């Protein structure tokens, strides 16, 4: 592991310490988990997955995609 140092205000530090204590983990582990959560949302080798679930539709919509795209039942 790489050791690093960060600066936070006193209120954030106290909140983080309490959160770590409630979870039974160290402040360092809380920070690692927080970084993982943030980076998991940003760094993806599948960026199109950000759009998954962005559009509402009916369960049968995919069955009619050929009709919508090609104007017929199958390509």
Radius of gyration over C-alpha positions, nearest whole angstrom: 23 Å
Average predicted local confidence, pLDDT: 83
Count, helices: 3
Percentage of residues in strands: under 5%
Low-confidence stretches: none
User: What structural class is derived from the secondary structure elements?
Assistant: mainly alpha
Q: Which shape, going by the Cα principal axes?
A: elongated
Structure description:
It is elongated, with a radius of gyration of 23 Å. It has 3 helices and no strands. The chain starts with 9 loop residues before the first helix and ends in a 5-residue tail after the last helix. The chain has a domain of 34 residues.
Could you outline the blueprint of secondary structure elements for this entry?
Layout (H helix, E strand, L loop, with lengths): L9 H14 L3 H16 L22 H6 L5
Helix pairs in contact: 1-2
Produce a short descriptive summary.
The chain is mainly alpha-helical. The protein is built from three helices and no strands.
Keywords:
75 residues
């Amino acid at each position: 592991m790489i050791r690093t140092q960060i600066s936070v205000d006193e209120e954030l530090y106290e909140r983080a310490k309490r959160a770590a204590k409630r979870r039974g983990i160290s402040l360092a582990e809380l920070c690692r988990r927080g970084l993982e959560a943030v980076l998991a949302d940003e760094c993806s080798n599948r960026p199109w997955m950000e759009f998954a679930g962005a559009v509402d539709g009916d369960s049968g919509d995919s069955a009619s995609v050929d009709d919508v795209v090609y104007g017929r039942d199958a390509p």
